[in-house]
Protein: Protein kinase domain-containing protein
Organism: Parelaphostrongylus tenuis
Amino acid sequence: MSRRLYGQNDYYRMQNHCLLPVRWLPPEAITDHKFSTSSDVWALGVTIWEVFSYGEVPFAELNNFEMVSYAMAGMRPPRPKSCPVAMYELMKRCWSIVPDDRIRPEEALLDPCFNTNSIRVHQCLSNVRTVANHTHICIFQDHRKVATFL
């Protein structure tokens, strides 16, 4: 994640060429190694997509090079079947090719799709049982308990 920065044009640029999780990164982070709050918003959109796709890997059928080309061409992961349209619209606002056009984190959290009457976390998690051999997901009957669990 980016460092908290102050100033409209500030960003964090990686100096070393370490391995990066390209499936969660926006084009500017991949091509220019620029990390900002806007790049975090892109990653937030991918993470939300993962939740609604029950932990699938974004663009799993593509290798990393193909995935980068795909994202830079404006292609995005499809809406998961379990994902409400309003939530997918929020994800797309996270994935704008222009960093300044992405939704701000504060706006994302205030979006009506996070209203407890329109999305229920426990419905999304109801089909998830075991993510790996030793990793179990707690199924919450009351979505309000998730916040206290975190």
